[in-house]
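Q: Could you fold this chain for me?
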Amino acid sequence: MPFEGDGGWGKCTLKSKKKIGNTFTVYEFALPRSDYTVPLALGQQIDFCCLGLEDNVVSGSFYPYDMNDGERGVVRVVVPNQDAKGNAALVGLGSSKFIEVLHEMRQGDEVALKPGKTTLEYRGERVPVTDMVYIASGLGIVPIVDQVKAITPKGTSSVKVTSVVWINDQRSDFDLAMDELESEYTKYSTKLAVSCIMDDVMKNPMEGNAEVEEAVPYFNAGTMAVISGPKRFSEKAKAYLMRKGYPENCICVLP
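A: Sure. Below is the predicted structure, expressed as structure tokens.
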């Protein structure tokens, strides 16, 4: 898809919106042509921009959601359904302002989009990476699922073992990606471990949680850890990994 507008923007129109329980909403946008795609690397967000409720410019950055291999003509993102303060805590103030506008949009409304920042970076000394450890909460699972799909099939990467630890404080939050994780585990059970843990780690320490301690492996040379979730969760998970022996340069925190 070409991005030839001022600032490298293209355009899309709202096609549909669908709630996942009471917690999340999936927005599907139609690209100008059915054969268009938005070229994205692993860990790369999509930037959106439009006029706000007060005719001001608002923007937000989100990871693509539930995109099938080879799918063209659409992009999807998933956003939280909380109030403004809750959304800001989950996705940041800027993106929360864009979500307010999203919730008021109707089918056919137009927004601008372009490929955003690439956020996945390995700074460790040991290459190749042979072990991946993912720790996610809430919407943080979205980019993790894409990465698991990309690196798990045989011959697609140097990774031999992948561990996914997904922690939520509400059972309904697991509806966001449980089916996809189960599908990947069924296909690659010998190299993929998935642990879904229900706990409020914002209130409770990760240390001492038997499920977390069992699911998160100790560091070995060649391991890369990726953390994805709300800012407070990510800070807590990073501190936990470092206390568990993970070097800081082997930990990537996704925004």
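A (continued): The longest strand covers residues 10-20.
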